[in-house]
UniProtKB/TrEMBL annotation:
Record-given protein name: Metallophosphoesterase
Source organism (scientific name): Candidatus Caccovicinus merdipullorum
InterPro entries cross-referenced by the UniProt entry: Calcineurin-like_PHP, Metallo-depent_PP-like, Metallophosphoesterase_sf, Pesterase_CT488
UniProt cross-references to Pfam families, sorted A to Z: Metallophos
Protein origin, superkingdom: Bacteria
Gene Ontology MF annotations: hydrolase activity
Domain Calcineurin-like phosphoesterase: 3-197
């Protein structure tokens, strides 16, 4: 039994969005995702997919992309990315109901993996697009959602945590944030995130160990589309 993570499949079975325009590393990315997954993840394993699943503008337009993920072996837990228009955070229960037994959606809840709780939310960081007021609003909303996930897990008796974000845990080149502080407060053992694409972006946030927590970037292009083992 193993825990894997990878993020940012950017699928578009129902939309015309070829990803190789984003660079040669994205060529045939869907086939590579599937082949590498089949070689890596066994049916008894769990994988957290850290957002940006689909280019679809709504659930109908994303259905084929979600079915592609559902057909992969193993237990699949999905996190929300900034491009996942099909996923209304307030209606996560609906997705969980509709895909019950096939996909699990991590938002204002947590999932158990052995004696670990898998907690998380989309997160947010400063990419220079927001006013200070907007930035604060988005950061504090995500901070609240992350705290909900942690506190539900702790109330259920969990003491060991792996924390997942879609956005990097800090804004560019920062070394701490409300998200890293919460990871430290709860004693998370790893913080796993994606969203950063292309060689110039891979170093935007923390990678490696800081204050006893391992930070891992798992964007699919960074991983060359091979799921990364977390536990
Ligand atoms: Fe992405
Ligand atoms: Fe993203």
């Amino acid at each position: 039994m193993a825990l894997y993570a990878i993020g940012d499949f950017h699928l578009s079975f129902s939309a015309d969005k070829p990803m190789d325009v984003f660079g040669p590393e994205w060529k045939n990315h869907v086939e590579r995702i599937r082949e590498n997954w089949l070689k890596t993840v066994r049916p008894e394993d769990t994988a957290v997919i850290t957002g940006d699943h689909s280019w679809g503008r709504n659930l109908e337009a994303s259905r084929a992309d979600l079915e592609f993920i559902a057909a992969l072996p193993g237990r699949k837990i999905l996190l929300r990315g900034n491009h996942d228009m099909f996923w209304d955070a307030k209606k996560t229960w609906k997705l969980n109901e509709e895909f019950a037994g096939r996909l699990e959606f991590l938002q204002n809840n947590f999932y158990a993996y052995g004696n670990f709780a898998l907690v998380g939310t989309k997160g947010y960081c400063d990419e220079g697009r927001d006013t200070p007021e907007q930035l604060e609003k988005l950061l504090s909303r995500e901070e609240g959602r992350l705290r909900t996930s942690f506190s539900m897990a702790r109330a259920a008796g969990y003491r060991r945590f792996v924390m997942f974000l879609h956005y990097p845990p800090t804004s560019i080149y920062e070394r701490e944030s409300r998200f890293t502080r919460m990871a430290e407060e709860y004693g998370a053992e790893a913080v796993v995130y994606s969203h950063c694409h292309g060689r110039k972006r891979y170093g935007d946030s923390i990678r490696g160990y800081k204050n006893g927590i391992e930070y891992k970037l798992v964007s699919s292009d960074y991983l060359r589309f091979v799921p990364e083992r977390i536990l």
